Amino acid sequence: MNHFLPLGRFSFGMGDRFAHQGKAQLRACILAAERGADVVPVWNKSNREHMFIGTDPSSVRAEADAAVEALDWKKPYHVDADHIRLETVDRFIPHSDFYTIDVADSIGEPAETAAVKAFVDRHPELVGTIAIPGIDRPFQTSRADVERIVGNCLLAVQDACKIYRHIAKAKRAANFITEISMDETDSPQTPPELLVILAALADGQIPLQTIAPKFTGRFNKGVDYAGDIKQFEKEFNDDLAVIAFAIKQYRLPPSLKLSVHSGSDKFSIYGPIRRALDRFSAGVHIKTAGTTWLEELIGLAEAGGDGLELAKDIYACALDHVDNLCAPYATVIDIDRARLPSAAVANGWGSRQFVSALRHDPACREFNPSFRQLLHVAFKIAAQKGDRYLDALKRHEAVIARNVTQNLFERHMKPLMLDL
Fold first, then answer.
1. Across the strands, what pairs with 260?
2. DSSP-derived secondary structure letter, 184
3. FRET label pair with 260: which of 166, 332, 349, 412, CA 20 to 30 Å apart?
4. Which run of H or of E encompasses 44?
């Protein structure tokens, strides 16, 4: 397979809406390395986020390179063109070496009957009894079962192949990392479904490094997992078993691993993930997305004075535009509007109250998940503040950076990779 760039066992997709926290994020990786866990930083930003803020993919590359140079980072790092489609990928190609190909919209769209038949004819091993090491019971699949699965996913795989080949042609001899995102669908993929998807991606000769399936439960932005933890643990273990099996069966890259999207702050499932990774000696890619932006707000509020006033102003504006802000993220937020404090109430808060409501500390009685989720999707408001916001980031860099580093290292990397 061509254009194959290996990805380390543990990698973190570190979104940074305003490209000011690269060094603070990288310091978390340095702290992890000092304690024996090599974490590959992957700076990511989607086309939608660039459009909302008015930035260009070159800014992400510039941020990553500057952080690496400033902190003398000698290990691998990457820049992710996050959730790209064929119509959006071109502006990322000069600046990215990691591509999250999003084909969720194509799942469920019918594939050509002849293509489905041809796939099943090529893969008789998918029909009958399938015993996968690490999964308690073998699966029984009929030809009709496989045809149904292929009919549901083949068009999405074909779309992924088109996008991958477009990138490969544009990148020429350059190597890059390919991730396939199928998490934004209606229901989780079963182990047989994931196996069929991986077989189809192998047929398409995509040197897949990570895949983001859908899991049971809600992966809302910036708050903890909502769902049946035991069911999630079973699904995560089963998916790791399927990946290990598919790597051998279909000669996929040996570094292929799961990707958990909106994986930031999913504290209740970090233990199950850690146990599963140890069991299979597997890796994981965690996307922390907008967590850094929230740590900027926390830092501004903690700084007090003009920083706190700016944080309050952003919240008041978010309340005024709550419907527009929430609409693009409706599937990944659950906001109880009755729990949103009025602008007048929030304006009366001191630094401690604002920070306590916003910081994701489940043990804190003042933590407000609805308040946090609204501000999570309110980065567009900060962008509209222009230099007032960016200048505040510079003035209060020390307190913001401390929060960014501590959040990534203490709340995310340690429980996933260091704490037993």
1. 286
2. S
3. 166
4. strand 39-46
Quote the crossing angle between the two packed helices 397-406 and 22-34, to the nearest 10°. Answer: 40
Identify the burial level of 386 via C-beta atoms within 10 angstroms of its C-beta, where 0-12 means exposed, 13-18 middle and 19 or more buried. exposed
* pLDDT range class, residue 185, cuts 50, 70, 90: confident
With bands split at pLDDT 50, 70 and 90, how would you rate the model's confidence at 420? very low
Looking at residue 411, the DSSP 8-state letter turns out to be I
What is the second-level CATH architecture of the domain 10-290? Alpha-Beta Barrel (3.20)
Query: Which two three-digit tokens encode residue 379?
Result: 């980065």
Rounded to 5 degrees, φ, ψ at 338 are -65, -20
Backbone angles phi, psi at 277, to 5 degrees: -65, -40
- Give domain limits for the chain: 10-290, 294-408
Amino acid (1-letter code) at residue 370: S
CA separation for the pair 199, 272 (Å, rounded): 27
Q: Residues 211, 200: contact at Cβ < 8 Å?
A: no
pTM: 0.96
Residue 4 DSSP symbol:
B
Task: Please list the residues that pair with 122 across neighbouring strands.
Answer: none
Q: How many CA atoms lie within 13 A of 292 on its CB side?
A: 28
| Tokens found for residue 118 | 């041809």
Whether the CB-CB separation of 138 and 129 falls below 8 Å is answered with: yes
Per-residue pLDDT tens for 273-307?
999 999 999 999 999 867 999 999 999 999 999 99
- CA gap 378, 221 in Å, rounded: 12
Range 81-119 burial, b when 16+ CB lie within 10 A, else e? bbbbeeebbeebbebbbbbbbbbbebbeeebeeeebeeb
